[in-house]
């Protein structure tokens, strides 16, 4: 009887210990998340925001500082007594690398744990052969790793943005605009660099980038449009990225705006992206220039548009088509704003005025009223920043899981 009783107590002790550890880990994660959003912040304010006792917060903060997650910076304003020590994320304690694999470019960044960009690189590419692309990226990643200073956590993750269907596990299912017959990105880079790897649809990553670090920070209902050779769409609903059943949301580039229209890379006809993307512009530009479209660039077309009415007319046509797609999106989802990112942002001056005009005519007025259309052309970094935000979020989740 005695032994049995002892066993029961022992089991209870263990359960209580693991419960306490779980609570502690959860509280540490909560503190980190709160500092991340509100830094610099004092221990007293943290306790208030989180409804925890000052003693609990102080103990956990001390641990987090010792473990390199947080650091103490300067003194804040006093509310009567001593001026409090302020806390911030120790963003230089680790790095992320993110790679946006476009159809005709590869863009990569090295960031700290707050998404601060330490280094960036962008190259135009003329091959979509999987092996060539992978080898090219491996060199890029190695170069970025060589630029890292010593840091307690080192490289916490590599993220890849891919233009295509990517399931919730990071498996690439299809890439209509690339010549990929296979894809083992995640396994390949995990094995080669011994680091956590995430693979995401590039437009979903772009939407998350705008939500985490960009023009969507203060908006809970916005749509991110990635305009490149194809068009990808990321949906932020109620403040979070909407992924659908398998992670396949956002293929709105393949909604049909022209019945029996031009053949799209997906094999269907009349898709929105075939009429409103960089590909449409280049194929129309090809007719003007008498050169194959893949030897022409959007940059050239944008430059020429300043002095050439015919080139401007191409952008205006693309913009009208772009606006029809946006009208369908606005009528469907009732967003606060639309953020346009990626390559097409270079054509803002020729496209945006036309887009706004057409939307005013075609979208349902009460839904379209007040919807801002923003071209975010700050280096077209939304996708890579979103990938970094995913890597950072998963790093903290891993560190504080029980
Ligand atoms: Zn299509």
UniProtKB/TrEMBL annotation:
InterPro entries, per the entry: ATPase_NBD, HTH_MarR-typ, ROK, WH-like_DNA-bd_sf, WH_DNA-bd_sf
CDD domains assigned: ASKHA_ATPase_ROK_BsXylR-like
Gene Ontology terms: biological process: D-xylose metabolic process
Ranges for domain HTH marR-type: 30-70
Alphabetically ordered keywords of this record: Carbohydrate metabolism, Xylose metabolism
Source domain of life: Bacteria
Listed GO MF terms: DNA-binding transcription factor activity
Pfam families: MarR, ROK
Main function: Transcriptional repressor of xylose-utilizing enzymes.
Entry's family note: Belongs to the ROK (NagC/XylR) family.
PANTHER family registered for this protein in UniProt: BIFUNCTIONAL UDP-N-ACETYLGLUCOSAMINE 2-EPIMERASE_N-ACETYLMANNOSAMINE KINASE (PTHR18964:SF149), ROK (REPRESSOR, ORF, KINASE) FAMILY (PTHR18964)
Name of the molecule in the record: ROK family protein
Organism: Bacillus selenitireducens (strain ATCC 700615 / DSM 15326 / MLS10)
